[in-house]
């Protein structure tokens, strides 16, 4: 999990989206094991001991990505896709 966090700050949009997808998978895995399986792994083992401050950093970074303004060479479609994706991710994990 911690390896994905720096990828949210990369310049390449596809890397940020892939990191976001990885984070969603980790949260899905944690929710599934907590809600459906009595012998499931605790969230800490799935996330790599996620601290509250790390969680808040991830939320903050995703909020920034969900409202990011475009720069030179950024297509409106790609930017809209990124905003929508991270907005949906935030709705899921918050």
Characterize this entry briefly.
This protein is mainly alpha-helical and about 90 residues long. It has helices spanning about 15-35, 45, 50-65, 75-94.
Low-confidence stretches: 32-42
Distance between the termini: 17 Å
Mean pLDDT: 79
Number of helices: 4
Fraction of residues in H or I helices: 55-70%
Topology pattern, helix = H, strand = E: HHHH
Q: Count the strands? A: 0
Spatial shape:
globular
Beta strand %: under 5%
Total domain modules:
1
Protein name: Interferon-related developmental regulator N-terminal domain-containing protein
Domain Interferon-related developmental regulator N-terminal: 2-94
Organism: Nymphaea colorata
Fold and architecture overview:
- The chain is mainly α.
- The protein has one domain (5-93).
- 66% of the residues lie in helices and 0% in strands.
- The radius of gyration is 14 Å and the shape is globular.
- InterPro entries: IFRD, Interferon-rel_develop_reg_N.
- Residues 2-94 form the Interferon-related developmental regulator N-terminal domain.
- It comes from Nymphaea colorata.
Structure keywords:
mainly alpha; 94 residues; 4 helices
């Amino acid at each position: 999990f911690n390896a994905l966090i720096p990828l949210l700050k990369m310049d390449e949009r596809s890397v940020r989206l892939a990191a976001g997808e990885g984070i969603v998978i980790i949260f899905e895995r944690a929710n599934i094991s907590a809600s459906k399986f009595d012998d499931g792994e605790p969230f800490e083992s799935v996330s790599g001991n996620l601290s509250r401050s790390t969680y808040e950093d991830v939320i903050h970074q995703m909020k920034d990505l969900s409202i990011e303004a475009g720069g030179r060479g950024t297509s409106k479609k790609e930017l809209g896709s990124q905003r929508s994706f991270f907005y949906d991710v935030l709705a899921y994990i918050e």
